[in-house]
Design a protein that fits this description.
This protein has 37 helices and five strands. The relative contact order is 0.04. The protein is 62% helix and 4% strand.
Protein backbone atom coordinates (compact mmCIF):
# COMPACT_ATOMS: atom_id res chain seq x y z
CA UNK A 1 0.00 0.00 0.00
CA UNK A 2 1.37 3.42 -1.00
CA UNK A 3 2.39 5.73 1.84
CA UNK A 4 0.92 9.22 2.14
CA UNK A 5 4.26 10.72 1.11
CA UNK A 6 4.35 8.62 -2.07
CA UNK A 7 0.79 9.55 -2.97
CA UNK A 8 1.52 13.24 -2.45
CA UNK A 9 4.57 12.97 -4.73
CA UNK A 10 2.35 11.45 -7.44
CA UNK A 11 -0.21 14.27 -7.39
CA UNK A 12 1.63 16.65 -9.79
CA UNK A 13 2.06 13.82 -12.30
CA UNK A 14 -1.66 13.04 -12.57
CA UNK A 15 -3.80 14.65 -15.28
CA UNK A 16 -7.18 16.03 -14.28
CA UNK A 17 -8.86 12.94 -15.71
CA UNK A 18 -6.48 10.61 -13.84
CA UNK A 19 -6.97 12.56 -10.63
CA UNK A 20 -10.76 12.27 -10.95
CA UNK A 21 -10.52 8.56 -11.68
CA UNK A 22 -8.18 7.87 -8.78
CA UNK A 23 -9.65 10.08 -6.06
CA UNK A 24 -13.12 11.40 -6.90
CA UNK A 25 -15.11 8.54 -8.43
CA UNK A 26 -14.99 6.10 -5.53
CA UNK A 27 -15.51 6.43 -1.78
CA UNK A 28 -12.16 4.84 -0.99
CA UNK A 29 -10.38 7.33 -3.23
CA UNK A 30 -12.20 10.24 -1.59
CA UNK A 31 -11.23 8.95 1.84
CA UNK A 32 -7.60 8.66 0.74
CA UNK A 33 -7.64 12.21 -0.63
CA UNK A 34 -9.09 13.57 2.62
CA UNK A 35 -6.27 11.77 4.48
CA UNK A 36 -3.35 13.06 2.41
CA UNK A 37 -4.56 16.59 1.59
CA UNK A 38 -3.75 18.04 5.05
CA UNK A 39 -0.12 16.98 4.45
CA UNK A 40 0.29 18.63 1.05
CA UNK A 41 2.95 21.33 1.36
CA UNK A 42 2.40 23.08 -1.98
CA UNK A 43 -0.51 25.53 -2.13
CA UNK A 44 -0.92 25.07 -5.88
CA UNK A 45 -1.44 21.32 -5.43
CA UNK A 46 -3.92 21.83 -2.61
CA UNK A 47 -5.88 24.40 -4.65
CA UNK A 48 -5.94 22.11 -7.68
CA UNK A 49 -7.30 19.20 -5.64
CA UNK A 50 -10.07 21.35 -4.14
CA UNK A 51 -10.97 22.87 -7.55
CA UNK A 52 -11.32 19.44 -9.15
CA UNK A 53 -13.34 18.15 -6.20
CA UNK A 54 -15.71 21.15 -6.40
CA UNK A 55 -16.36 20.40 -10.07
CA UNK A 56 -17.39 16.85 -9.23
CA UNK A 57 -19.27 17.47 -5.96
CA UNK A 58 -19.76 20.84 -4.26
CA UNK A 59 -20.17 19.35 -0.80
CA UNK A 60 -17.14 17.10 -1.08
CA UNK A 61 -15.04 19.96 -2.42
CA UNK A 62 -16.16 22.22 0.42
CA UNK A 63 -15.23 19.66 3.06
CA UNK A 64 -11.81 19.25 1.45
CA UNK A 65 -11.33 23.02 1.37
CA UNK A 66 -11.25 23.00 5.15
CA UNK A 67 -8.77 20.11 5.42
CA UNK A 68 -5.81 21.74 3.68
CA UNK A 69 -3.12 23.42 5.75
CA UNK A 70 -4.49 26.49 7.60
CA UNK A 71 -2.28 28.86 5.62
CA UNK A 72 -3.86 27.60 2.38
CA UNK A 73 -7.45 27.79 3.57
CA UNK A 74 -7.95 31.46 2.75
CA UNK A 75 -7.40 30.58 -0.90
CA UNK A 76 -9.55 27.44 -0.87
CA UNK A 77 -12.40 29.26 0.90
CA UNK A 78 -12.29 31.96 -1.79
CA UNK A 79 -12.99 29.24 -4.35
CA UNK A 80 -16.29 28.55 -2.60
CA UNK A 81 -17.06 32.27 -2.41
CA UNK A 82 -16.80 32.50 -6.21
CA UNK A 83 -19.31 29.69 -6.88
CA UNK A 84 -22.37 31.15 -8.65
CA UNK A 85 -25.15 29.77 -6.45
CA UNK A 86 -27.83 30.85 -3.99
CA UNK A 87 -26.82 32.48 -0.70
CA UNK A 88 -28.39 29.57 1.19
CA UNK A 89 -26.32 26.91 -0.58
CA UNK A 90 -23.16 28.98 -0.33
CA UNK A 91 -23.65 29.29 3.44
CA UNK A 92 -24.18 25.54 3.66
CA UNK A 93 -20.95 24.93 1.76
CA UNK A 94 -19.00 27.36 3.92
CA UNK A 95 -20.25 25.56 7.04
CA UNK A 96 -18.99 22.26 5.64
CA UNK A 97 -15.44 23.61 5.57
CA UNK A 98 -15.39 23.88 9.39
CA UNK A 99 -12.75 26.53 8.79
CA UNK A 100 -12.21 29.79 10.67
CA UNK A 101 -11.38 31.36 7.29
CA UNK A 102 -15.05 30.96 6.32
CA UNK A 103 -16.27 33.04 9.26
CA UNK A 104 -15.74 36.51 7.65
CA UNK A 105 -17.95 35.53 4.68
CA UNK A 106 -20.59 34.21 7.05
CA UNK A 107 -20.47 37.41 9.10
CA UNK A 108 -21.13 39.38 5.92
CA UNK A 109 -24.23 37.23 5.35
CA UNK A 110 -25.57 38.37 8.73
CA UNK A 111 -26.48 41.64 7.01
CA UNK A 112 -28.49 39.96 4.23
CA UNK A 113 -31.98 41.35 3.66
CA UNK A 114 -33.63 37.91 4.05
CA UNK A 115 -34.02 36.68 7.62
CA UNK A 116 -33.69 33.03 6.48
CA UNK A 117 -30.21 33.79 5.12
CA UNK A 118 -29.19 35.56 8.33
CA UNK A 119 -30.39 32.60 10.37
CA UNK A 120 -28.48 30.12 8.21
CA UNK A 121 -25.33 32.23 8.53
CA UNK A 122 -25.41 32.34 12.31
CA UNK A 123 -26.11 28.59 12.46
CA UNK A 124 -23.18 27.98 10.09
CA UNK A 125 -20.85 29.89 12.41
CA UNK A 126 -22.11 27.71 15.24
CA UNK A 127 -21.40 24.56 13.24
CA UNK A 128 -17.80 25.62 12.80
CA UNK A 129 -17.70 25.75 16.59
CA UNK A 130 -14.11 26.96 17.04
CA UNK A 131 -12.92 29.58 19.51
CA UNK A 132 -13.04 32.11 16.68
CA UNK A 133 -16.66 31.11 16.04
CA UNK A 134 -17.46 31.48 19.74
CA UNK A 135 -16.00 35.00 19.76
CA UNK A 136 -18.09 35.97 16.73
CA UNK A 137 -21.26 34.52 18.23
CA UNK A 138 -20.60 36.38 21.46
CA UNK A 139 -20.38 39.60 19.45
CA UNK A 140 -23.61 38.66 17.65
CA UNK A 141 -25.38 38.45 21.02
CA UNK A 142 -25.21 42.25 20.94
CA UNK A 143 -26.72 42.52 17.45
CA UNK A 144 -29.56 44.97 16.91
CA UNK A 145 -31.29 42.21 14.94
CA UNK A 146 -33.32 40.25 17.51
CA UNK A 147 -33.29 37.10 15.37
CA UNK A 148 -29.51 37.16 14.99
CA UNK A 149 -29.27 37.68 18.75
CA UNK A 150 -31.55 34.70 19.44
CA UNK A 151 -29.79 32.36 17.05
CA UNK A 152 -26.38 33.43 18.33
CA UNK A 153 -27.42 32.33 21.83
CA UNK A 154 -28.84 29.10 20.42
CA UNK A 155 -25.63 28.40 18.51
CA UNK A 156 -23.46 29.00 21.59
CA UNK A 157 -25.61 26.51 23.49
CA UNK A 158 -25.25 23.98 20.68
CA UNK A 159 -21.45 24.31 20.67
CA UNK A 160 -21.56 23.11 24.29
CA UNK A 161 -17.90 23.79 25.16
CA UNK A 162 -15.91 25.52 27.88
CA UNK A 163 -15.08 28.47 25.57
CA UNK A 164 -18.79 28.87 24.77
CA UNK A 165 -19.69 28.73 28.46
CA UNK A 166 -16.96 31.24 29.21
CA UNK A 167 -18.33 33.64 26.63
CA UNK A 168 -21.83 33.29 28.09
CA UNK A 169 -20.62 33.86 31.65
CA UNK A 170 -18.93 37.04 30.48
CA UNK A 171 -22.16 38.09 28.73
CA UNK A 172 -24.07 37.69 32.02
CA UNK A 173 -22.45 40.96 33.10
CA UNK A 174 -23.22 42.88 29.93
CA UNK A 175 -24.81 46.28 30.43
CA UNK A 176 -27.77 45.36 28.19
CA UNK A 177 -30.43 43.23 29.91
CA UNK A 178 -31.32 41.52 26.62
CA UNK A 179 -27.79 40.17 26.27
CA UNK A 180 -27.84 38.94 29.87
CA UNK A 181 -31.15 37.17 29.32
CA UNK A 182 -29.97 35.35 26.22
CA UNK A 183 -26.72 34.41 27.95
CA UNK A 184 -28.42 32.68 30.89
CA UNK A 185 -30.89 31.07 28.48
CA UNK A 186 -28.03 29.59 26.44
CA UNK A 187 -26.25 28.35 29.57
CA UNK A 188 -29.27 26.15 30.17
CA UNK A 189 -28.52 24.31 26.92
CA UNK A 190 -24.92 23.50 27.76
CA UNK A 191 -23.84 20.23 29.38
CA UNK A 192 -24.50 20.34 33.14
CA UNK A 193 -20.88 19.67 34.12
CA UNK A 194 -19.90 22.87 32.36
CA UNK A 195 -23.04 24.90 33.02
CA UNK A 196 -23.81 24.23 36.69
CA UNK A 197 -20.99 26.31 38.22
CA UNK A 198 -22.00 29.28 36.06
CA UNK A 199 -25.70 28.87 36.87
CA UNK A 200 -25.03 28.69 40.60
CA UNK A 201 -23.18 31.99 40.39
CA UNK A 202 -26.07 33.38 38.33
CA UNK A 203 -28.42 32.63 41.25
CA UNK A 204 -26.58 35.45 43.06
CA UNK A 205 -26.65 37.84 40.10
CA UNK A 206 -27.80 41.44 40.77
CA UNK A 207 -30.39 41.12 37.99
CA UNK A 208 -33.47 39.26 39.33
CA UNK A 209 -34.37 38.11 35.81
CA UNK A 210 -31.01 36.35 35.50
CA UNK A 211 -31.58 34.78 38.94
CA UNK A 212 -35.00 33.30 38.20
CA UNK A 213 -33.91 32.02 34.81
CA UNK A 214 -30.93 30.35 36.42
CA UNK A 215 -33.29 28.73 38.94
CA UNK A 216 -35.38 27.27 36.10
CA UNK A 217 -32.31 25.70 34.51
CA UNK A 218 -31.08 24.33 37.83
CA UNK A 219 -34.43 22.58 38.21
CA UNK A 220 -34.15 21.02 34.77
CA UNK A 221 -30.61 19.82 35.42
CA UNK A 222 -31.54 18.41 38.83
CA UNK A 223 -27.99 17.86 40.07
CA UNK A 224 -27.71 17.42 43.87
CA UNK A 225 -25.30 20.34 44.22
CA UNK A 226 -27.94 22.85 43.07
CA UNK A 227 -30.36 22.06 45.93
CA UNK A 228 -28.72 24.20 48.68
CA UNK A 229 -28.50 27.13 46.28
CA UNK A 230 -32.17 26.80 45.33
CA UNK A 231 -33.13 26.53 48.99
CA UNK A 232 -31.35 29.82 49.55
CA UNK A 233 -33.20 31.28 46.55
CA UNK A 234 -36.51 30.55 48.32
CA UNK A 235 -35.59 33.53 50.53
CA UNK A 236 -34.90 35.84 47.58
CA UNK A 237 -36.35 39.34 47.80
CA UNK A 238 -37.94 38.92 44.36
CA UNK A 239 -41.16 36.87 44.31
CA UNK A 240 -40.52 35.51 40.80
CA UNK A 241 -37.19 34.11 41.92
CA UNK A 242 -38.85 32.48 44.95
CA UNK A 243 -41.59 31.00 42.77
CA UNK A 244 -39.16 29.62 40.21
CA UNK A 245 -36.89 28.21 42.89
CA UNK A 246 -39.89 26.43 44.44
CA UNK A 247 -40.84 24.96 41.07
CA UNK A 248 -37.25 23.83 40.49
CA UNK A 249 -37.12 22.05 43.85
CA UNK A 250 -40.41 20.34 43.00
CA UNK A 251 -38.90 18.98 39.79
CA UNK A 252 -35.87 17.73 41.65
CA UNK A 253 -38.09 16.21 44.37
CA UNK A 254 -35.80 16.94 47.29
CA UNK A 255 -37.51 16.23 50.63
CA UNK A 256 -35.36 18.74 52.50
CA UNK A 257 -37.23 21.53 50.74
CA UNK A 258 -40.65 20.51 52.12
CA UNK A 259 -40.71 22.60 55.35
CA UNK A 260 -39.72 25.76 53.53
CA UNK A 261 -42.21 25.07 50.70
CA UNK A 262 -44.98 24.65 53.28
CA UNK A 263 -44.10 28.09 54.64
CA UNK A 264 -44.31 29.53 51.12
CA UNK A 265 -47.92 28.35 50.81
CA UNK A 266 -48.67 31.50 52.78
CA UNK A 267 -46.21 33.81 51.03
CA UNK A 268 -47.31 37.34 51.99
CA UNK A 269 -46.20 39.07 48.80
CA UNK A 270 -47.42 36.88 45.95
CA UNK A 271 -49.95 34.11 45.49
CA UNK A 272 -47.86 32.98 42.48
CA UNK A 273 -45.27 31.79 44.99
CA UNK A 274 -47.97 29.89 46.88
CA UNK A 275 -49.13 28.22 43.66
CA UNK A 276 -45.62 27.09 42.76
CA UNK A 277 -45.03 25.85 46.30
CA UNK A 278 -48.23 23.78 46.20
CA UNK A 279 -47.27 22.23 42.87
CA UNK A 280 -43.80 21.44 44.18
CA UNK A 281 -45.19 19.74 47.28
CA UNK A 282 -47.40 17.59 45.07
CA UNK A 283 -44.39 16.52 43.02
CA UNK A 284 -42.37 15.66 46.13
CA UNK A 285 -45.32 13.77 47.67
CA UNK A 286 -43.98 12.91 51.14
CA UNK A 287 -46.20 12.70 54.22
CA UNK A 288 -44.95 16.09 55.34
CA UNK A 289 -45.76 17.51 51.91
CA UNK A 290 -49.29 16.09 52.09
CA UNK A 291 -49.79 17.65 55.52
CA UNK A 292 -48.80 21.04 54.10
CA UNK A 293 -51.19 20.66 51.16
CA UNK A 294 -54.02 19.75 53.50
CA UNK A 295 -53.45 23.05 55.29
CA UNK A 296 -53.54 24.84 51.95
CA UNK A 297 -57.07 23.55 51.29
CA UNK A 298 -58.20 26.16 53.84
CA UNK A 299 -56.40 29.01 52.10
CA UNK A 300 -58.54 32.08 51.43
CA UNK A 301 -57.32 32.28 47.82
CA UNK A 302 -59.23 29.88 45.57
CA UNK A 303 -56.25 29.60 43.19
CA UNK A 304 -54.08 28.32 46.02
CA UNK A 305 -56.77 25.85 47.09
CA UNK A 306 -57.11 24.67 43.52
CA UNK A 307 -53.36 24.20 43.16
CA UNK A 308 -53.30 22.21 46.40
CA UNK A 309 -56.11 20.01 45.09
CA UNK A 310 -54.29 19.38 41.80
CA UNK A 311 -51.08 18.65 43.69
CA UNK A 312 -52.83 16.13 45.94
CA UNK A 313 -54.14 14.46 42.80
CA UNK A 314 -50.57 13.57 41.93
CA UNK A 315 -50.16 11.68 45.22
CA UNK A 316 -51.83 8.28 45.07
CA UNK A 317 -52.67 7.76 48.72
CA UNK A 318 -55.87 7.35 50.68
CA UNK A 319 -55.20 10.51 52.68
CA UNK A 320 -54.76 12.54 49.50
CA UNK A 321 -57.87 11.02 47.93
CA UNK A 322 -60.05 11.84 50.96
CA UNK A 323 -58.78 15.42 50.98
CA UNK A 324 -59.54 15.87 47.29
CA UNK A 325 -63.01 14.39 47.75
CA UNK A 326 -63.72 17.01 50.39
CA UNK A 327 -62.73 19.67 47.87
CA UNK A 328 -65.66 18.54 45.71
CA UNK A 329 -67.73 20.63 48.14
CA UNK A 330 -65.54 23.74 47.88
CA UNK A 331 -67.38 27.05 47.50
CA UNK A 332 -65.51 27.81 44.30
CA UNK A 333 -66.69 26.13 41.08
CA UNK A 334 -63.18 25.86 39.63
CA UNK A 335 -61.78 24.24 42.75
CA UNK A 336 -64.57 21.65 42.56
CA UNK A 337 -63.77 21.09 38.89
CA UNK A 338 -60.08 20.65 39.63
CA UNK A 339 -60.99 18.20 42.38
CA UNK A 340 -62.88 16.06 39.87
CA UNK A 341 -59.93 16.14 37.49
CA UNK A 342 -57.55 15.28 40.32
CA UNK A 343 -59.61 12.24 41.30
CA UNK A 344 -59.52 11.05 37.71
CA UNK A 345 -55.74 11.47 37.65
CA UNK A 346 -55.15 9.46 40.82
CA UNK A 347 -53.30 6.23 40.08
CA UNK A 348 -55.74 3.74 41.59
CA UNK A 349 -54.66 0.73 39.51
CA UNK A 350 -54.51 -2.39 41.68
CA UNK A 351 -56.08 -0.69 44.70
CA UNK A 352 -59.73 -1.74 44.69
CA UNK A 353 -60.61 0.06 47.91
CA UNK A 354 -59.13 3.34 46.65
CA UNK A 355 -61.00 2.95 43.35
CA UNK A 356 -64.31 2.46 45.16
CA UNK A 357 -63.65 5.41 47.44
CA UNK A 358 -62.83 7.74 44.54
CA UNK A 359 -65.79 6.55 42.48
CA UNK A 360 -68.13 7.09 45.43
CA UNK A 361 -66.85 10.63 45.84
CA UNK A 362 -67.38 11.39 42.17
CA UNK A 363 -70.86 9.86 42.33
CA UNK A 364 -71.81 12.50 44.90
CA UNK A 365 -70.51 15.24 42.59
CA UNK A 366 -72.86 14.07 39.83
CA UNK A 367 -75.46 16.18 41.60
CA UNK A 368 -73.35 19.37 41.53
CA UNK A 369 -75.38 22.44 40.58
CA UNK A 370 -72.79 23.53 37.97
CA UNK A 371 -72.59 21.77 34.60
CA UNK A 372 -68.86 22.61 34.41
CA UNK A 373 -68.22 20.38 37.43
CA UNK A 374 -70.46 17.59 36.13
CA UNK A 375 -68.63 17.69 32.79
CA UNK A 376 -65.34 17.20 34.64
CA UNK A 377 -66.87 14.37 36.69
CA UNK A 378 -67.85 12.56 33.48
CA UNK A 379 -64.28 12.75 32.20
CA UNK A 380 -62.87 11.56 35.54
CA UNK A 381 -65.20 8.54 35.65
CA UNK A 382 -64.02 7.62 32.15
CA UNK A 383 -60.43 7.59 33.39
CA UNK A 384 -61.26 5.34 36.35
CA UNK A 385 -63.18 2.88 34.17
CA UNK A 386 -64.61 0.54 36.83
CA UNK A 387 -68.16 -0.90 36.78
CA UNK A 388 -69.11 1.60 39.48
CA UNK A 389 -67.78 4.38 37.22
CA UNK A 390 -69.94 3.04 34.37
CA UNK A 391 -72.99 3.25 36.65
CA UNK A 392 -72.21 6.89 37.40
CA UNK A 393 -71.84 7.67 33.69
CA UNK A 394 -75.22 6.08 32.98
CA UNK A 395 -76.76 8.60 35.38
CA UNK A 396 -75.04 11.45 33.52
CA UNK A 397 -76.54 10.31 30.21
CA UNK A 398 -79.75 11.99 31.37
CA UNK A 399 -78.09 15.28 32.36
CA UNK A 400 -79.88 18.47 31.35
CA UNK A 401 -76.73 19.87 29.69
CA UNK A 402 -75.78 18.41 26.31
CA UNK A 403 -72.01 18.78 26.88
CA UNK A 404 -72.21 16.69 30.06
CA UNK A 405 -74.29 14.01 28.33
CA UNK A 406 -71.92 13.81 25.39
CA UNK A 407 -68.87 13.63 27.63
CA UNK A 408 -70.49 10.74 29.48
CA UNK A 409 -70.98 8.87 26.19
CA UNK A 410 -67.37 9.50 25.19
CA UNK A 411 -66.15 8.22 28.55
CA UNK A 412 -68.18 5.03 28.12
CA UNK A 413 -66.63 4.59 24.68
CA UNK A 414 -63.19 5.19 26.17
CA UNK A 415 -63.75 2.52 28.85
CA UNK A 416 -64.96 -0.02 26.26
CA UNK A 417 -65.64 -2.77 28.85
CA UNK A 418 -68.61 -5.17 28.49
CA UNK A 419 -70.54 -3.11 31.05
CA UNK A 420 -69.75 0.10 29.12
CA UNK A 421 -70.87 -1.47 25.83
CA UNK A 422 -74.15 -2.56 27.43
CA UNK A 423 -74.64 0.99 28.68
CA UNK A 424 -74.03 2.36 25.18
CA UNK A 425 -76.50 -0.11 23.70
CA UNK A 426 -79.11 0.97 26.23
CA UNK A 427 -78.32 4.60 25.38
CA UNK A 428 -79.62 3.98 21.84
CA UNK A 429 -83.10 4.23 23.36
CA UNK A 430 -82.50 7.38 25.41
CA UNK A 431 -84.72 10.44 25.04
CA UNK A 432 -81.92 12.73 23.87
CA UNK A 433 -81.03 12.52 20.17
CA UNK A 434 -77.41 13.55 20.73
CA UNK A 435 -76.92 10.68 23.19
CA UNK A 436 -78.45 8.18 20.75
CA UNK A 437 -76.34 9.34 17.83
CA UNK A 438 -73.08 9.51 19.77
CA UNK A 439 -73.67 6.12 21.41
CA UNK A 440 -74.12 4.58 17.97
CA UNK A 441 -70.78 5.98 16.94
CA UNK A 442 -68.93 4.29 19.79
CA UNK A 443 -70.54 0.87 19.40
CA UNK A 444 -68.52 -1.63 17.34
CA UNK A 445 -71.41 -3.26 15.51
CA UNK A 446 -73.81 -0.37 14.99
CA UNK A 447 -73.87 1.79 11.86
CA UNK A 448 -72.26 5.16 12.36
CA UNK A 449 -73.87 6.80 9.36
CA UNK A 450 -76.16 8.98 11.48
CA UNK A 451 -73.31 11.00 12.93
CA UNK A 452 -69.53 10.75 12.74
CA UNK A 453 -66.66 12.02 14.80
CA UNK A 454 -66.21 15.74 14.26
CA UNK A 455 -63.25 15.34 11.94
CA UNK A 456 -62.70 16.87 8.52
CA UNK A 457 -63.94 14.28 5.97
CA UNK A 458 -60.73 14.80 4.02
CA UNK A 459 -58.62 14.10 7.06
CA UNK A 460 -57.47 10.66 5.92
CA UNK A 461 -55.41 10.25 2.78
CA UNK A 462 -55.02 6.85 1.12
CA UNK A 463 -52.42 7.03 -1.61
CA UNK A 464 -51.56 4.12 -3.84
CA UNK A 465 -47.82 4.32 -3.20
CA UNK A 466 -46.71 1.10 -1.53
CA UNK A 467 -44.31 2.93 0.76
CA UNK A 468 -46.89 5.23 2.33
CA UNK A 469 -49.29 4.30 5.11
CA UNK A 470 -52.78 5.69 5.33
CA UNK A 471 -52.30 8.95 7.20
CA UNK A 472 -54.58 10.88 9.52
CA UNK A 473 -53.47 14.28 10.82
CA UNK A 474 -55.47 15.69 13.71
CA UNK A 475 -55.56 17.95 16.73
CA UNK A 476 -54.99 16.17 20.03
CA UNK A 477 -58.68 16.33 20.98
CA UNK A 478 -59.70 14.94 17.58
CA UNK A 479 -57.06 12.23 17.87
CA UNK A 480 -58.43 11.11 21.25
CA UNK A 481 -61.91 10.76 19.77
CA UNK A 482 -60.58 8.92 16.76
CA UNK A 483 -58.70 6.42 18.93
CA UNK A 484 -61.67 5.59 21.17
CA UNK A 485 -64.00 5.27 18.18
CA UNK A 486 -63.98 1.47 18.13
CA UNK A 487 -64.18 0.72 14.36
CA UNK A 488 -61.71 3.46 13.42
CA UNK A 489 -59.41 2.98 16.39
CA UNK A 490 -58.87 -0.70 15.64
CA UNK A 491 -57.34 0.24 12.27
CA UNK A 492 -54.61 2.37 13.82
CA UNK A 493 -51.20 0.74 14.21
CA UNK A 494 -48.98 3.80 14.58
CA UNK A 495 -49.16 7.11 16.44
CA UNK A 496 -46.79 10.08 16.52
CA UNK A 497 -47.89 12.67 19.05
CA UNK A 498 -46.15 16.01 19.57
CA UNK A 499 -46.84 17.77 22.85
CA UNK A 500 -45.56 20.77 24.73
CA UNK A 501 -42.93 20.01 27.39
CA UNK A 502 -44.42 18.85 30.67
CA UNK A 503 -47.89 18.20 29.21
CA UNK A 504 -48.77 14.56 29.70
CA UNK A 505 -50.02 12.46 26.81
CA UNK A 506 -53.77 11.65 26.86
CA UNK A 507 -54.37 8.33 28.59
CA UNK A 508 -56.16 6.67 25.70
CA UNK A 509 -53.11 7.08 23.45
CA UNK A 510 -51.73 3.87 24.92
CA UNK A 511 -54.35 1.98 22.91
CA UNK A 512 -52.29 2.48 19.74
CA UNK A 513 -49.67 -0.30 19.79
CA UNK A 514 -46.71 1.59 18.26
CA UNK A 515 -46.16 5.13 19.49
CA UNK A 516 -43.63 7.93 19.37
CA UNK A 517 -44.05 10.83 21.78
CA UNK A 518 -41.97 13.99 21.37
CA UNK A 519 -42.11 17.16 23.45
CA UNK A 520 -41.25 20.60 22.14
CA UNK A 521 -43.11 23.84 21.47
CA UNK A 522 -44.46 25.16 18.20
CA UNK A 523 -41.58 27.55 17.58
CA UNK A 524 -39.80 28.67 14.42
CA UNK A 525 -37.06 30.55 16.24
CA UNK A 526 -35.63 30.54 19.77
CA UNK A 527 -37.53 32.52 22.38
CA UNK A 528 -35.92 33.57 25.64
CA UNK A 529 -38.55 31.84 27.79
CA UNK A 530 -36.60 28.99 29.45
CA UNK A 531 -39.78 26.90 29.70
CA UNK A 532 -40.27 26.81 25.93
CA UNK A 533 -38.33 24.31 23.86
CA UNK A 534 -37.32 24.49 20.21
CA UNK A 535 -37.32 21.26 18.19
CA UNK A 536 -33.88 19.68 17.74
CA UNK A 537 -32.30 17.71 14.94
CA UNK A 538 -32.43 14.66 17.24
CA UNK A 539 -36.23 14.95 17.38
CA UNK A 540 -36.49 14.88 13.60
CA UNK A 541 -34.14 11.92 13.36
CA UNK A 542 -36.42 10.01 15.78
CA UNK A 543 -39.36 10.74 13.46
CA UNK A 544 -37.40 9.50 10.45
CA UNK A 545 -36.29 6.33 12.26
CA UNK A 546 -39.89 5.65 13.36
CA UNK A 547 -41.08 6.08 9.76
CA UNK A 548 -38.47 3.72 8.37
CA UNK A 549 -39.31 1.03 10.94
CA UNK A 550 -42.98 1.54 10.19
CA UNK A 551 -42.45 0.92 6.48
CA UNK A 552 -41.50 -2.71 7.16
CA UNK A 553 -44.91 -3.39 8.76
CA UNK A 554 -47.53 -1.22 7.01
CA UNK A 555 -50.50 0.13 8.92
CA UNK A 556 -52.53 3.30 9.46
CA UNK A 557 -50.67 6.25 11.00
CA UNK A 558 -52.15 9.00 13.17
CA UNK A 559 -50.10 12.17 13.65
CA UNK A 560 -51.27 14.80 16.12
CA UNK A 561 -50.27 17.90 18.03
CA UNK A 562 -52.31 20.42 19.98
CA UNK A 563 -54.04 21.97 16.95
CA UNK A 564 -53.17 19.55 14.16
CA UNK A 565 -51.89 22.37 11.98
CA UNK A 566 -48.17 23.05 12.49
CA UNK A 567 -46.03 20.49 14.34
CA UNK A 568 -48.14 17.52 13.24
CA UNK A 569 -48.14 18.49 9.56
CA UNK A 570 -44.38 19.09 9.64
CA UNK A 571 -44.04 15.63 11.17
CA UNK A 572 -46.25 14.07 8.50
CA UNK A 573 -44.26 15.83 5.77
CA UNK A 574 -41.04 14.41 7.25
CA UNK A 575 -42.53 10.89 7.31
CA UNK A 576 -43.74 11.11 3.71
CA UNK A 577 -40.47 12.58 2.44
CA UNK A 578 -38.47 9.87 4.21
CA UNK A 579 -40.62 7.04 2.82
CA UNK A 580 -41.04 8.37 -0.72
CA UNK A 581 -37.35 9.14 -1.12
CA UNK A 582 -35.26 11.84 -2.74
CA UNK A 583 -36.87 13.86 -5.52
CA UNK A 584 -40.42 13.22 -4.25
CA UNK A 585 -40.68 16.27 -2.00
CA UNK A 586 -43.62 17.77 -3.91
CA UNK A 587 -45.49 14.47 -3.77
CA UNK A 588 -44.88 14.25 -0.02
CA UNK A 589 -46.33 17.75 0.41
CA UNK A 590 -49.34 16.79 -1.71
CA UNK A 591 -50.05 13.88 0.63
CA UNK A 592 -49.96 16.20 3.64
CA UNK A 593 -52.26 18.75 1.99
CA UNK A 594 -54.74 16.03 1.11
CA UNK A 595 -54.71 14.76 4.68
CA UNK A 596 -54.93 18.24 6.23
CA UNK A 597 -55.83 21.03 3.75
CA UNK A 598 -55.32 23.69 6.45
CA UNK A 599 -51.72 22.54 7.00
CA UNK A 600 -49.15 25.17 7.94
CA UNK A 601 -46.06 23.10 8.79
CA UNK A 602 -43.60 24.37 11.37
CA UNK A 603 -40.86 25.86 9.18
CA UNK A 604 -38.02 25.10 11.56
CA UNK A 605 -38.99 21.42 11.73
CA UNK A 606 -39.12 21.24 7.93
CA UNK A 607 -35.68 22.84 7.68
CA UNK A 608 -34.31 20.29 10.13
CA UNK A 609 -35.96 17.47 8.14
CA UNK A 610 -34.43 18.87 4.96
CA UNK A 611 -31.04 18.80 6.67
CA UNK A 612 -31.49 15.32 8.16
CA UNK A 613 -32.66 13.84 4.85
CA UNK A 614 -30.02 15.68 2.81
CA UNK A 615 -32.52 17.36 0.47
CA UNK A 616 -30.46 20.54 -0.07
CA UNK A 617 -33.37 22.89 0.53
CA UNK A 618 -35.87 21.07 -1.73
CA UNK A 619 -38.15 20.01 1.11
CA UNK A 620 -38.26 23.51 2.58
CA UNK A 621 -38.83 24.95 -0.89
CA UNK A 622 -42.12 23.11 -1.46
CA UNK A 623 -43.69 25.19 1.31
CA UNK A 624 -42.87 28.35 -0.63
CA UNK A 625 -44.58 26.91 -3.72
CA UNK A 626 -47.78 25.79 -2.02
CA UNK A 627 -50.54 25.20 -4.61
CA UNK A 628 -54.01 26.54 -3.99
CA UNK A 629 -55.59 23.11 -3.58
CA UNK A 630 -54.47 19.54 -2.88
CA UNK A 631 -55.74 18.50 -6.31
CA UNK A 632 -53.42 20.98 -7.97
CA UNK A 633 -50.59 19.79 -5.77
CA UNK A 634 -51.05 16.22 -6.96
CA UNK A 635 -51.35 17.32 -10.57
CA UNK A 636 -48.07 19.24 -10.36
CA UNK A 637 -46.14 16.56 -8.50
Amino acid sequence: MNSAATLIQQLPELSDAQFNEKYLKQKQGMHTLATILPQVEQQSLALRAVKLALKVNLKLGSKLAGTVKPEFQTATIKLIGKIPTSPQLKIQLLALTSSDRAIPMLVTALNHKESAVRRMAIRAIGKIGSQAAVRELARSLESEDSQVQAWAAWALGEIDSKPAAGALVKALHHKASGVRVWAVWALGKIHPKIAVPALLKALKHPDSEVRWRAAVHCGKIGAPEVVPWLMNALKDSNHIVRARAAAALGKIGDCEAVPRLVELLYDPDSYAVSLRAAEALGQIGTETAVAGLLEALNHEDSDVRGSAVSALGEISSEVAAVAVMRALSDRDIFVRGRAAVALGNLNTAGDTNLQKMVTAGLALAIGDSESYVRWRVAAALGQIGTEEAVAGLVRLLGDETSGVRQNAVKSLGQIGSPAAVLALEAALNREFADVRALAAQYLPDVSTSAETVDLDPSASADFSGEKLPKILIAAEAEASEYIVDRPAGRQLKYLISIGSPGVREPRNFHKVPNRLRLEFNDLDTPVDDPDRVLAKLEDIIKIIDFALKMSAHPGNLLVCCQSGISRSTATALTVCAALLGRGKEQEAWAVVLAARPQAKPNRWMVQLADEALGRDGKLALVLELTPATPELAIANS
